[in-house]
Amino acid sequence: MRCPYCKHHDSKVLDTSHDSHGGIRRRRECLKCRQRFSSYERPILATPLLIKQDGAREEFDREKLARGIRISCAKRPVSAADIERMIGHVETSLQKLGKAEVSSRVVGDLVMATLKEADQIAYIRYAIVYLGLDDLQSIRTEIDQLLED
């Protein structure tokens, strides 16, 4: 593992932990500059192609998903670890479907469900874009449904 600080090739593993999605987090120390850093390993499993509303197909993009969730959670009391868990949950759920292609709606619905549990304001922010809520009445309807649950 190359050190992100000095680019030296050798590092020592100080600690290893496993997460629920099969990933491995390693705490490392560079043998040259002695800086400490973490690395994260996760298995590469096939994610399905996403079928967009216009019929176009595109690869699942973990970074695009992460950007959308982070924007929704901006300035909210949602930790980076919680955001990573949500991203991992959505990705794992897609992999477990075992399909070669799925509608992009499936991803949106999974994100909506995870945000609804994590933070209701982040959920509403995502819903405004995802559901295309373009007037106050439709936003109010969504908030009322949220309050009823």
Question: Secondary-structure element sequence?
Answer: EEEEEHHEHHH
Instruction: Characterize the overall form.
Output: globular
**Could you give the order of strands across the largest sheet?**
1-2-3
- Helix coverage percent of residues? 40-55%
Q: What would the average pLDDT be, to the nearest integer?
A: 92
Strand content bin: 15-25%
Major sheet size, sense and barrel closure: 3 strands, antiparallel
Tell me the distance between the termini: 47 Å
The number of helical runs is 5
Class inferred from helices and paired strands: alpha+beta
Low-confidence stretches: none
How many β strands by DSSP? 6
CA-based gyration radius: 19 Å
Brief overview:
This protein has 149 residues and is α+β, with helices and mostly antiparallel strands. Helix content is 46%, strand content 19%.
Entry keywords:
149 residues; 5 helices; 6 strands; globular; three-stranded antiparallel beta sheet; three-stranded mixed beta sheet
